[in-house]
Design goal:
The protein is of the alpha/beta class. It has helices at about 25-40, 60-70, 75-85, 100, 110-115, 135-145, 155-165, 190-200, 215-220, 230-240, 245-260; strands at about 15-20, 45, 90-95, 120-125, 145-150, 170-175, 205, 225-230. Strands 1-2-3-4-5-6-7-8 form an eight-stranded parallel β-barrel, surrounded by eight helices. Helix 1 (about 25-40) links the parallel strand 1 (about 15-20) and strand 2. The longest helix has 18 residues, at about 245-260.
Length: about 260
């Protein structure tokens, strides 16, 4: 039995790396998961590539294109996860888009049922608004997966409404716009987190724009954890098949910073 999403937050502040599956290859992605866990990651987001990833900035968009050009498919990613689950029970969630879920097999239930069967713990769909989440959430609940809710800096009156129904953790989007590293993050994360906690006792992790240990420590000090994607994907792009030790070193530095928060 694999762990639950919430277990990622059981030992203090969580560090959550994001990896685009299949960039540079699925073999490397599998090694990255083990390396991230060894470096102290508490939960891992696995991105299933999509041809039109609307929430992503140029770094992750390019990774999606490279992975798709390399022949990555959802089924190949599922097979990789089965391999990973023979070696580790670290909490893992898929991050992808509604279209990927709809177009798998006969649709949503086929995708979510298979994700649960191979040992995934949750699902993040950044293009599904709160008002449309029920068709995914009901199936996720049926199969024991957490559908992770996102809240944006603009969501003030919506934050409590979204938080009341949140599962696993709440993904606090630190900056408006798409993913990517930022020189500074000006959003009042503390206020967002307080609104969530008033509505429900659920962990909050902050993502979008975090690249340095200082930023990670700052965001984690105001929440329950930090999520990093683009900075890791940049290392994969720069070092290709040699990226695993570079990513491991980076994740360790980020986790050390989060621990100090």
């Amino acid at each position: 039995m694999s762990k639950k999403v919430a277990d990622a937050f059981a030992n203090g502040k969580a560090f959550i790396p994001f990896i685009t599956c299949g960039d540079p290859s699925l073999e490397v992605t599998e090694q990255l998961v083990y390396a991230c866990e060894e470096a102290g990651a508490d939960l891992i987001e696995l991105g299933i590539p999509f041809s039109d990833p609307t929430a992503e900035g140029p770094v992750i968009q390019a990774a999606n294109m490279r992975a798709l050009a390399g022949g990555v498919t959802t089924d190949k990613i599922f097979a990789m996860v089965e391999q990973i689950r023979q070696k580790t029970d670290i909490p893992m969630v898929f991050m992808t888009y509604a279209n990927v879920v709809f177009s798998y097999g006969k649709g949503t239930e086929d995708f979510i049922g298979r994700a649960a069967e191979i040992g995934m713990n949750g699902l993040i769909l950044p293009d599904v608004p709160f008002e449309e989440k029920e068709e995914f959430d009901s199936v996720c609940r049926q199969y024991g997966l957490d559908l992770i809710s996102l809240i944006a800096p603009t969501s003030h009156e919506r934050i409590k409404m979204i938080a009341k129904e949140a599962n696993g953790f709440v993904y606090c989007v630190s900056s408006l716009g798409v993913t990517g590293t930022r020189t500074e993050i000006t959003t009042d994360i503390g206020a967002m987190v307080r609104l969530v906690k008033e509505a429900k006792d659920v962990p909050c992790a902050v993502g979008f724009g975090i690249a340095t240990p200082e930023q990670a420590k700052n965001m984690a000090s105001q929440s329950d954890g930090a999520i990093v994607g683009s900075a890791i994907v940049k290392l994969c792009a720069a070092y290709g098949t040699e990226c695993v030790p570079k990513v491991k070193e980076y994740v360790k530095a980020m986790k050390d910073a989060v621990r100090e928060a």
